[in-house]
Structure formats: C-alpha cells, structure tokens
Write a structure and sequence with these properties.
Elements (H helix, E strand, L loop, with lengths): L1 H7 L5 H8 L16 H10 L9 E4 L3 E4 L5 H5 L6 E3 L2 E3 L4 H4 L3 E2 L2 E2 L4 H10 L14 E2 L3 H13 L12 E9 L4 H30 L14 E9 L6 H11 L4 E3 L8 H10 L3 E2 L15 E5 L2 H14 L4 E6 L2 H15 L4 E6 L6 H8 L6 E5 L3 H7 L7 E5 H4 L13 E6 L9 H12 L7 H21 L5 H9 L22 E3 L3 E6 L2 E2 L10
Parallel strand pairs: 8-9, 8-10, 10-11, 11-12, 12-18, 13-14, 13-15, 15-16, 16-17
Antiparallel strand pairs: 1-2, 1-7, 3-4, 5-6, 17-19, 19-20
Helix pairs in contact: 3-7, 6-7, 8-17, 9-10, 11-12, 17-18
C-alpha cells in the first residue's frame, strides 16, 4: 500500500504552482508569535516524529493505519512543500506562501491554524471540501498542529542563494589528486554545455515575454549559468574549511558534477550542512550516509563492487578471503568488503603491497590460496597484468571499475576461476545514451579521452537544466531536488549504467551489477545475472 500511495505522489506541475503563485503572498496565521519552534514541525513533516519523540500515527485509504516514519508529509508534498501530481491525483503546494493565502482554483479561503488542524485531522479544507482517501488523517495535539503551522509558514518562503536577476551560479568541485588530462576532459564538457545553454538564454527570455496572458508577462525565469571550478588541495580534513571559504565568497545554487579519486564524504557532509544540492559527482568512492538528502550519486562505485563480491561469496561460500591493494581508494573498498564479510564468519586477510615495486613478488610471498580461499585483487589493469602469470590457483575476483569498466582488453585467466565485479552495462551491449552523447561531443569538437567521466558530466548538466526548467521562477534548492526525484525519464540519457533509477529517498541511481566469469581471457556474458546487494 505504501508503495502504491507514494508512487501516486509524483511529478510536479510547475504551471499549477505558477498559477497559485499569482495569489497574494499571504502570511502565517496572526498568532504565529506564540507557536512552538518550527524545528519540531520540521521533524514531523520530514521524519514523521511527534513532539513526544514517538512516530506520528494516521489513517489512509479510509481504514489503513500508518506511521509517520513510513509515510511522512514529505513523501507526497516533497521536501520543499511545492507539491506533486500524477495522472488525476494532484498534491497541491503547502508551502506557507500558498497555504496561508486564498486559492482561486479550487477556490478556498486562506488557511489558519484552526483550519489546518481540521485538514490534518479530518481531511477537510477551509472551503469545506473533503480531500479524499489519499490524504492521511493524523492524530495530532494542538501543540503539534501549532508546530506544523510554524514550519509550513516559513517553508520555501525565500529564494535560495546563488541566484540573482541575471545569473544562476554553480560550482564543480575537483580534488588535486585527479589526473590533469581527465580534469581537462570533464571541464571541456561542462564549459561547452554551459556556453550552449547561455547562447539560448536571450532567445528564451524574449519568447517568454512576448505572450499576452498574465502568466507570460511574469518576470523572466531565464538566467545565464555561471560555472566556477573549485579545486580542493591538501588532506581531506581541510576540505570543509576550503569549501566554506569558497562558498562564503561566492554562494552557489548547487554543486554540478565534480571529480575526486578520494572519498566524496567530506564534500557531501559540507553540502548536507549547508543544504546545497551536490548533483552527480564523478567519484567511485561515494560513501553516502543514511538519510542524506542533498547529494545524488551515480553509483556507490567500489563499495557497490564489494557488495557484489560479498553476495557472490554468500552463494558460493569460502572460508578465507585475501584482499590485495596498494592505493587509498581500493583500501576503502577492501575495508567495505571486510565489513560485509564479518557477519558471515569468513576469515579476511588484507595485504597492502607496494605498487611501485615488483607487485608479483609481494603477492606470491603474501598469499597461498587454497580451495577454500578467494583472492580479491583491488588493482589496476597494469597491476593485474604484472601478476597475471603468477596467479595462484583458486577463486579470484577483480574490480571492473579499477580495470576501466569496458573490459575490452585481454584479462587474466591463470586460475581455476576468475570473476570480475561489473556494475556497468554488459560488454558489447549497445548503449544508445552513449551514442547520443558521443554525437553531441563530436559536433562540438570534444575528444572523448575520459568517456565515462565526460558522459557523467554531460548527464549532470542535462539533469540540472531539466530541474531548473521545472522549478520555473521558484529558485528553491529543495524544489529542484524534489523535481529530480521524479524525473525518471531522464535516465534514458545516462550511459554506462544498466538500470539507473531516480525516485524519492533514492540518492544512488545505479544499485546493482554483475559478477562475470572470465574464460580464455574474455568476459562471459551469456548467463549474466543481475545482482542487487
């Protein structure tokens, strides 16, 4: 039932919001000075937690009891409170500027705290209309209604930083460990997309202002994009301070794309604290926290591969696992797999080797796999090639991400059974989204020297452009993210990933992959099985 109800609360109607925005701005109820803290209302709205700390309770569909932790106000109305719709089901905006002002369609008086209480408890609007079975009927005290009133009064009441009358500002964050050629390749895509977008802004503004209806004569929504490059240097512990200084000097509406070979967690934490959308960074070390809202990732990267390997090992158990790595990123992946295997009573040994010396010597000295042992090589193609002739017998796992993803070059086949964890499209499978991106890049003279990262940067730009289009003149960060939560049609433009999805509470698009066998140096895909760790 929850999935059905939530699925009906999809997609936004910017025209509806635009129309309602034409009402008087309204104000909070007159007794707002005596209301409890809006923070308590925020917790009810987003988490479904009452003032007492217990879950809110409600009835939906006439007789179905639910907890607020299962089905909160945010589930349908969005984090921004700007509303949603699907088919004939319309969830109107409930941000204060709409809720506490009269509405012409459907006609109703402005809400007060008293009429909001009737709505929340009985589903009845100030105009006497019953909202039907989809609107939950909550058990709420007067103090809880007051707290909710205080929160809704200020919800989405001001435009977000990073926007003025002429421009909307973005930043792309790149850490200094990124290879210079990869950095240049991604920036080429980002800057070209921004230039293309801005070249059309003037014409878009003229078309908007040519109409004869009141809505067409509203202030233009079109802005030039300004993209800044924020390079982070030094240890990750210093990134937060660097980001804060950059942001205070030049506030941005959102972080767009980005690159790092280190954990993205410090950047994501900064975005969460400052409530800045961090949209689709190029990283294989996402490291998301449960409950994060502001960062959207393509994949958990190496952590996803660790999950794929762990699930494959659960189906074909071994007693011991030896992990080999020599760089910080793979070390994090190894730590993730170790954590996943701890609960399965598997003995895990980590072998950190010196990648600068003869890797084969260190590997042979450090490992003696037996029939009940699996070897996991968190290594690059060059490192794997270095040891290909000395692989011991037994089961071996490789990382597709570290091998480059496409798996087109010959792979090691010197063991009894070699597998590769692969969270991308199957090798040899046609990728229409990549073909579209390649055509776009070719017509603009962009060389695809880092195709996955460049395609990801292109998709990030498409997603942001789509979100900005749908939020209209309401430049509110949470509204942009709510819009992306329901932009499932966008995934058709994302190359490389086989089954990406966008949706509420989903902060990672690609959630699964394959564990593919290698035979005669080639990946075997005929019986590939999709795995969701």
């Amino acid at each position: 039932m929850m999935a059905i109800l939530a699925s009906r609360c999809r997609w936004f109607l910017p025209l509806l919001v635009l129309m309602l925005g034409g009402c008087d701005s309204g104000s909070a109820p007159s007794d707002s000075a005596d209301l409890p803290s809006a923070d308590a209302g925020r917790r009810m709205y987003i988490e479904g937690i009452r003032l007492s700390g217990e879950p809110m309770t409600a009835i939906v569909a006439g007789d179905v009891p639910v907890l607020g932790t299962q089905f909160s106000c945010e589930s349908c109305h969005g984090r921004s409170g700007m509303g949603a719709a699907e088919g004939s089901y319309i969830v109107p905006p409930i941000a204060g500027q709409f809720l506490f002002a009269p509405s012409p369609q459907p006609e109703r008086p402005a809400y007060t705290q008293e009429s909001l209480a009737r709505l929340l408890r009985d589903g009845e609007t100030p105009g006497g209309r019953n909202l039907g079975e989809l609107m939950p009927r909550y058990e709420m005290s007067d103090d809880e209604v007051a707290a909710m009133t205080a929160y809704l009064a200020g919800l989405s009441s001001v435009l977000s930083p990073g926007v003025d009358d002429t421009v909307i500002r973005f930043a792309t964050v790149i850490t200094e460990d990124v290879d210079a050629s990869e950095r240049a390749a991604v920036l080429d895509v980002l800057n070209t997309f921004v230039a293309d977008k801005n070249s059309n802004t003037r014409l878009e503004s003229e078309r908007w202002d040519r109409g004869y209806t009141p809505s067409s004569r509203l202030q233009t929504t079109h802005r030039d994009w300004v993209l800044e490059e924020w390079v982070l240097t030094g240890p990750s512990e210093s990134w937060d301070e660097q980001l804060q200084q950059r942001y205070e000097a030049s506030p941005v509406f959102a972080m767009l794309s980005g690159l790092s070979n280190q954990s993205w967690a410090p950047i994501s934490d900064f975005c969460e604290r400052n409530e800045i959308p961090c949209l689709f960074p190029g990283t294989d070390l996402a490291d998301p926290n449960e409950g994060d809202f502001y960062t959207l990732y393509y994949s958990r990267g190496l952590a996803l591969e660790a999950g794929l390997i762990a699930k494959h090992l659960a189906a074909e158990p071994v007693s011991n696992v030896i992990q080999v790595y020599c760089e910080p990123g793979p070390a994090l992946a190894a730590a993730g797999l170790r954590q996943l295997l701890d609960s399965n009573e598997v003995l895990v040994e980590d072998l950190e080797v010196d990648c600068q010396n003869q890797l084969a010597d260190g590997l042979v000295e450090g490992t003696t796999p037996a029939a009940e042992t699996a070897l996991v090589l968190w290594l690059s193609p060059e490192q794997v090639t270095n040891i290909a002739d000395t692989l011991p017998p037994g089961r071996i796992y490789l990382s597709s991400t570290l091998l480059g993803g496409e798996l087109s070059s010959p792979l090691p086949d010197g063991s009894d059974s070699v597998f590769v964890a692969h969270p991308f499209r199957l090798p040899g499978q046609f990728d229409p989204a990549l073909a579209r991106f390649s055509a776009w890049a070719k017509t603009r003279g962009i060389e695809l020297s880092a195709p996955r990262r460049q395609a990801e940067a292109f998709f990030a730009c498409l997603a942001v452009k789509d979100a900005i289009k749908h939020i209209g003149r309401f430049f509110i960060r949470d509204y942009a993210l709510d819009t992306l939560d329901h932009a499932q049609s966008l995934v058709a433009y994302l190359p490389f990933y086989p089954r990406p999805t966008l949706g509420p509470q989903q902060r990672v698009m690609n959630k699964g992959g394959y564990v593919l066998p290698i035979r005669n140096g080639q990946v075997v895909t005929e019986e590939a099985e999709w795995i969701s760790p």
